[in-house]
Design brief:
The strands form three sheets. Strands 1, 2, 3, 4, 5, 6, 7, 8 and 9 form a nine-stranded mixed beta sheet that branches. A four-stranded antiparallel beta sheet has the order 10-17-12-15. Strands 11-16-13-14 form a four-stranded antiparallel beta sheet, with no helix packed on it. A hairpin with a 6-residue loop joins strand 7 and strand 8 (182-187). It has 13 helices and 17 strands. It has helices at 25-29, 34-52, 82-101, 132-146, 154-159, 201-219, 230-248, 253-264, 272-275, 287-302, 304-312, 397-400, 404-421, and strands spanning 7-22, 60-65, 69-74, 108-122, 125-129, 150-153, 167-175, 182-187, 277-279, 321-325, 330-332, 340-346, 349-352, 358-362, 367-368, 383-386, 390-396. The protein has 422 residues and is an alpha+beta fold. It is elongated, with a radius of gyration of 27 Å.
């Protein structure tokens, strides 16, 4: 029979939880002996504690976890409201970020949330429980994805006032095994989070405003009636990215990730308004992936050039530019010069002849505009009109010439379509 553990001194309270983890720890210690790893970690945790454990940040508890990890719990002072506790936590996160930038501390990710902590005495030791530890851990893990040192949930972000004007909206996410969406934020400051110290802060604040306005529209806000509208979001994010690139000389990673998401999901799915971006881990070797590998093998055996183009060297994908068009928009006019081939991502389009007679109705997954390329004059052979609001991916004539194999695929589609219609 299992021994009974005596539980005593149970205490539950609201606190700010910070979870930290060193980046690339396994790589950094791969060639170290156990004694060297011990020395390395003692120095790391000593430096981290020196930065965190200042009198101005108390009351707090700091505890090393799982080697390179660390848990910090910020408790409320007597008579203090929770907003002041959030301020202390965010100040600590910024001190750590500044230490990372100055190479005082190895690159470290941080996740910060406001949550409930249950602390109990289990026999001879204390243990802490609470679902919000998992949220903090997930946010810490996403720092690399979004290219920042720390992420915090909306509860901390909206309550803190230290960096009110430097607060950056990173989006609304659904995390695996977390049953509610999380609005996440970080702070951009000169010398921290990839913004150079010597650039004017006015430029940084302009960038933050551009990005936050785009992300507000991306995530939506039921309370204010803001509905996600990806076409405008994409334009706004591209403008913010261009501004950032012009000032910093490289792209903002968080904008890159959201643009990538929009490229893969041109329209909000059914649960997006409620749950936001889905950040769900993918199984590495499920049945579908194994079938895909088998299909690739068969394709490679049948047509080596096609395999290389479609599976390995997929640079052509980025030349299919997203377009959002409204119901009734004319997409192609008969006898005009071809300017590209379209892939219909979603919605319906109608294809008609010169007399307005229906030739075909196309839906998501169909290609159109390819027939013109069978003729040397490259003139359109039909009219195409959007029957509903549509999302398209279009590759221009000039870009199509860069990829002979893709052009050959479109020619095969065109010949098959002509044969079916004859």
């Amino acid at each position: 029979m299992a021994a009974q553990i005596k539980i005593s001194d149970e205490r539950q309270r609201q606190a700010v939880i910070m979870m930290t983890d060193m980046e690339h720890y396994s790589f950094a210690t791969a060639a170290m002996s156990p004694q060297e790893i011990c020395k390395f970690l003692l120095q790391y945790h000593g430096t981290l504690q020196d930065i965190v454990d200042l009198e101005e940040s108390h009351p707090l508890e700091i505890e090393a976890t799982a080697g390179d990890g660390c848990l910090v719990i910020f408790d409320r002072r007597a008579g203090e409201d929770i907003a002041a506790t959030c301020d202390r936590a965010v100040r600590v996160a910024m001190r750590l970020a500044e230490a990372i930038e100055s190479n005082m501390l190895p690159p470290t990710r941080m996740g910060i949330v406001l949550g409930e902590v249950l602390e109990v005495n289990l026999g001879k030791r204390f243990a802490r429980f609470g679902a919000d530890f998992s949220v903090a851990n997930r946010l810490e893990g996403l720092c690399g994805y979004f290219g920042c040192h720390f992420l915090m949930d909306g509860e901390v972000a909206q309550r803190q006032s230290v960096y009110r004007y430097n607060l950056v909206n990173m989006g609304k996410l659904s995390l695996a095994s977390i049953f509610h969406p999380v609005n996440i934020y970080t702070v951009y400051k000169p010398g921290v989070q990839n913004w150079p110290r010597d650039l004017p802060e006015e430029d940084l604040l302009t960038f933050i405003q551009l990005k936050n306005e785009a992300m507000e529209l991306f995530s939506g806000n039921p309370e204010t009636g803001v509905v996600p509208f990806f076409p405008h979001v994409r334009e706004m994010l591209l403008a913010a990215q261009e501004f950032y690139l012009g000032k910093v000389g490289k792209k903002d990673k968080s904008i890159y990730q959201v643009l990538k998401y929009i490229n893969e999901n041109p329209e909000p799915n059914g649960g997006f308004n409620r749950a936001g971006m889905e950040m769900i881990e993918k199984r590495r070797d499920d049945f579908g992936r194994r079938i895909f590998h088998m299909s690739c093998g068969f394709l490679k055996s049948l047509d080596h050039d096609l395999y290389i183009t479609l599976v390995e060297e997929i640079e052509w994908e980025k030349f299919f530019k997203l377009e959002w068009r409204l119901e009734g928009d004319v997409l192609i006019t008969i006898d005009s010069i071809a300017d590209g081939v379209y892939y219909l991502e979603s919605g319906l389009v109608e294809v008609t002849d010169a007399n307005g007679e229906n030739i075909a109705s196309l839906e998501a997954g169909d290609v159109f505009g390819e027939i013109a390329y069978l003729d040397e004059a490259q003139r359109r052979t039909a009219n195409v009109v959007a029957e509903t609001d549509v999302v398209l991916r279009k590759i221009s004539s000039a870009d199509l010439e860069k990829f002979p194999v893709i052009k050959r695929i479109f020619e095969k589609i065109a010949k098959k379509r002509l044969a079916q219609n004859s």
